[in-house]
Design goal:
3 domains; two-stranded antiparallel ribbon
């Protein structure tokens, strides 16, 4: 009977060990699935998953556009009086830095009472808004308005009267 009891206790021990191994195997399987899911689901910074040439091409486009926009707006601002600092629109580039993608300058468009000063200021506004190579719609509109106002001043000086009769 003792042999039978020992055999039964050894058998139950092996059975318990097998159950524990099975439980551990299931835990390992769940952990493996979880880690695989996390690896595929998350973004790991620093890993290269892009073509270096494409990255450099896009980065160069951001840098060139930034330089072009800033130069364009600084040329405008240097030509006439402004009411505020240059305003830029920014976008984050592929390297995590901010690059200008647009901008604007607010000119002082008040007209002095003295006709000669007004004519000079309108000429400055026209020159400042049209001094860059590639005119935006706003640039052209300001240059056109300044030119029309200058022509109106000159015609008033010559004695034309545009009042309604």
């Amino acid at each position: 009977m003792e042999i039978y009891d020992s055999y039964q206790s050894a058998s139950s021990l092996y059975q318990q060990i097998a159950i524990k191994k099975s439980e551990l195997s299931n835990i390992d399987k769940k952990e493996f699935q979880k880690s695989t899911f996390e690896k595929n689901d998350t973004v790991v910074l620093g890993e290269k998953n892009y073509d270096e040439n494409d990255y450099q091409r896009v980065l160069n486009k951001f840098k060139n556009k930034d330089n072009e926009i800033k130069t364009h707006e600084q040329i405008h601002a240097s030509g006439a009086q402004t009411t505020t600092a240059i305003s830029y629109n920014y976008q984050v580039g592929p390297d995590g830095k901010l690059y200008a993608t647009g901008g604007s300058v607010r000119f002082d468009t008040s007209i002095p009472k003295d006709p000669q000063s007004a004519k000079m200021k309108l000429e400055q506004l026209k020159d400042a808004s049209s001094s860059v190579g590639a005119l935006s719609g706003a640039d052209a509109s300001i240059a056109q308005a300044a030119n029309l106002n200058k022509m109106l001043l000159e015609s008033l000086k010559e004695g034309f009267n545009y009042e309604n009769r």
